[in-house]
Amino acid sequence: MIQIENVSKEYQRRGRSVTALQPATLSVEQGEFVSIVGPSGSGKTTLLSMLGGMLAPTSGTVMVLGENLYQLDVSARSRFRNEKIGFVFQNFNLVPWLTALENVQLPLTIGRAEAAVQRNRALELLERFGLADRADHKPSELSAGQQQRVALARTLISTPRLILADEPTGNLDPDSRAMVMETLRECQKQFDQTVILVTHDSSIAESAERKLRITEGVLTEEQPRLNVASA
Amino acid sequence: MTIRSLVWKEILQRPAPTVAALLAVALGVAALVSVQSIATSSEAQVARQMNELGANLLVLPKSADLQDYYAADLHNETLPEEYVTTIILAQAVGVEEMAPKLCLQTTIDEKDVTLTGILPRTEFFEKSSWQSVDLMFQEMEETQLGSKHENCTGRTCQLTDADMQDLKSYAKTRVVHDLAPFSILVGADAARELNVSEEDEVEIMGESFKVAAVLPASGTVDDQRVFAHLHTVQDLSGMGPVVNVIEVMGCCEDVTDGLVAELEELLPDARVITISQLVEAQVSMNRLMSRLSYLLFAILMLVGGASIASVMFANVSERRRELGTLLALGATPALLQRLVLMKASLIGVVGGAVGLLFGAVLAFVCGPMVVDVPLDLSLQAIGWGLISALIVAMLFSYFPARKAGHLDPSVCFQDV
Q1: Is residue A113 part of a domain?
Q2: Is residue A43 a contact partner of residue A215, using CB atoms and an 8 Å limit?
Q3: pLDDT tens, position by position, A14-71
Q4: Domain residue extents for chain B
């Protein structure tokens, strides 16, 4: 599913080279739930961006679903992201001037799906998340938990093979947090989706099948892959 | 939902900057459309006047200042009326008709009016001093006032006796066959203003006048005038046998140059000018106005373009995370550029249309105040305005669009 080989990232800041990620190699299987932990500024989001095809590594190769992401041109990479990868953000990143329904439709709008397909699929997902009666509400009219559910619905509308979540529960109350995690796990099981989740919450990190840690740009595996069959 | 509706919804969400940019464009287009329409209409009016009055000449006092053919008699300088006789006796080639005039500013029912004395054609031949050449006059009365122009290519004043006898035709022909001493012809605007109609009695400077006809609108200053017999106006003014101007109508433009020379020689104390000389200043003014309108348009469009660029740059900066999120969701950089350019084109098209409407209203409302002519919209200005508005909006949004296309998608993870 994901195969990264000697991937590193360096930035130039004020004439100095800053290493965000030391050369790392990692493989993730289809359907795995992987958590990444580490202190702020350690390189977690950098790794997530590179896996999502949004940040070219300084060295190494990033293979996702058999595609060498950074050998694709920008448009092909965008299309790949639209069809195969879903993002969940800590701050939800909903478009403030669109309704919940329109926000959920966005990936399909970008992919030029038919209007009726967009609408039906979005309504279906909002109903699944208990937000059918909030379809016409703007994000500012929703609670944080509701906003994250809308964002989750937006992520799932294109049934991505890979979900990249950047501290998705960071801004949520305990009930909403539990609901988001439950949804991600359900998706993983129901649709065989791979979930890679960056978190500061140790209990969430522990509950993943694999736990990776990044410290000062060095990626290490803290909790190796579980043998699900023997667990 | 479509990409187009995405653009529209964003504009509706943040209308103020968009409206500001739109107004800047609209202002440029409005300026172009209004000024060009006024200039074009004025040019058309001048061309019409040239066509109608091409072979006409004005005989004026040397010191008279003149800007408008139809207001040639609105000054205080005078000529002796006997110049009319002098011109007739000279038998100049191509002289068809003559219209001596004297103006008097007065009031009717406490309303200011210009009372203009005109000499009916019959009177040319009745003055005692002219009786000596009675036989010649009899012949001229039936034809024209000067010598016949051989091989004439056209008659600008194709007046029949019936034309001249119909008092209402004065608005067009500027000549009447006969007018009683205490009868008046009232211009269309003046009749409305004074609330008079035919057969009404009107008191002017203590004398009672009968309205012989209300003239149809001519679109000239004559619409605001009241016309009476020249000799009556002379008596009322107490100025004696004088006129402010003698309008000489030539048979065709071929005779104009010869007539000017002949009349200048005949009347050394007078100034003889042709309609072409008179409109030359107006034509130059129109051309200047037209050029200035393009210059004004260019400046306003540059200001509008800068405003669009500023709004678009600010828009892209404000929406960094939003645009980053769209990139994360699979939007290509080209799509983000298109979002910006679609918004710009909408500003250009709507700004152009608003400017066109505003310009048209401005031209129709203010145009008649400026040039006193019926207005027609300049299609050329409309075309230029609309196309330029679109091009300027797109051109000045190119760099903001490029900026959107080059956004780092990782910005969606940042707390901006």
Answers
A1: yes
A2: no
A3: 888 888 899 999 999 998 999 999 988 888 888 999 999 999 999 999 999 999 999 9
A4: 3-48+282-413, 63-268
Question: For B322, left (φ over 0), alpha (ψ -120 to 50), or beta?
Answer: alpha
**Is A208 within the bounds of a domain?**
yes
Secondary structure of B228-253 as H, E, C letters: EEHHHHHHHHCCCCEECEEEEEECCH
- A230 is a domain residue: no
- Average pLDDT across chain A, whole number: 89
N- to C-terminal Cα distance for chain B?
Answer: 27
Chain B residue at shortest CA distance from A80: B330
| pLDDT under 70: residue ranges of chain B | 49-55, 65-71, 125-165, 171-172, 252-257, 276-279, 281, 370-374, 415-416
What's A85's domain CATH number? 3.40.50.300
Beta-strand relationship, B183-186 and B242-243: unpaired
A96 to B322: CB separation less than 8 angstroms, yes or no: yes
Q: Number of folded domains in chain A?
A: 1
Assess B16–A contact: CB distance below 8 Å, yes or no: no
Structural domain range at position A20: 2-223
Structure confidence by residue, pLDDT tens digits, A86-124: 999 888 889 999 999 999 999 999 998 999 999 999 999
Neighbours of B128 (CB within 10 A): 6
What's the rounded Cα separation, in Å, for the pair B263 and B244? 16
CB–CB of A81 and B413 under 8 A? no
How many residues are listed for chain A in this entry?
231
Residue in A48, A81, A102 nearest the CB of B330: A81
Q: Report if residue A231 sits inside a domain.
A: no
- Nearest CB to A109; choose among B2, B328, B332: B2
Sign of CA dihedral A34, A182, A97, B345: positive
In degrees and rounded to multiples of 5, residue A5 shows phi and psi of: -125, 115
Q: What is the largest CA-CA distance in chain A?
A: 53
- Which residues in chain B are closer than 8 Å to A118, comparing Cβ atoms? 1
For residue A58, what is the DSSP state?
Answer: S
Q: Do B322 and A106 touch (CB under 8 A)?
A: no
Cα atoms found within 13 Å of the Cα of residue B33, Cβ hemisphere only: 30
* Structural contact between residues A1 and A32, judged by C-beta atoms closer than 8 angstroms: yes
Nearest to B199 by CA among B174, B167, B232: B167
What's the number of CA atoms in the CB half-sphere (13 Å) around residue A136? 1
